[in-house]
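MOLECULE: protein
FOLLOWS: sequence and fold
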Amino acid sequence: MSSPQRADRNSAASTSAVTSLRERKKAKTRRTIQEEALRLFAEQGYEATTVEQIAEAAEVSPSTFFRYFPTKEDVVIQDDYDPMLLEAIRAQPPDLPPLTALRAAFRTAFESIGPEELDQMLARIKLTASVPALRARTVEGLFATIELLAAAMAERSGRDPRGPAVQTLAGAVLGVILTALFGWVEQDGRTPLLVLIDEALGYLEAGLPI
């Protein structure tokens, strides 16, 4: 290999390493801001907690807070689960039926979530249920999730993502997932979330027998 080629490869590897380090730092900062925000919300209430207090607890400036979260609501609402789920759906074998593929994708995605992150998720859902402004923002997120599921299913099946069949399937899947989440919150997390989600999707896959 010539020296220029070796230099190009080394340069690309160095750039990739720097980018990876930068992304890890950003993810750590984002996670710290959310953790401190949830701690303060639990201690003194959502309304009483300011962005300035969250930033101070996370050891960042308010301007840095807003680079990660446009509003205080976003520090509760935002997460990385939709992209993670989409990646898991796309990784499923193409010959699997839609609901079977979705069920497997949810298992794959949620198996990667650790206990601490699940505790944080539980706290976020409880907070969302108790604060009107957060409930309103959550509705917006639900529509976005339906569109994500519809796009993923349309991609697998070659169907129109706006067609009634695909939209209905996406809505039904989101409906049973919400039921599992509500049950998880009501039980205060006693039953593992993955178990509840898998049972709910299995019920849907079986045709919703009563």
Q: What stands out?
A: The CA atoms of residues 41 and 48 lie 8 Å apart. The chain has a mean pLDDT of 89. The longest helix spans residues 3-44. DSSP finds ten helices and no strands in the chain.
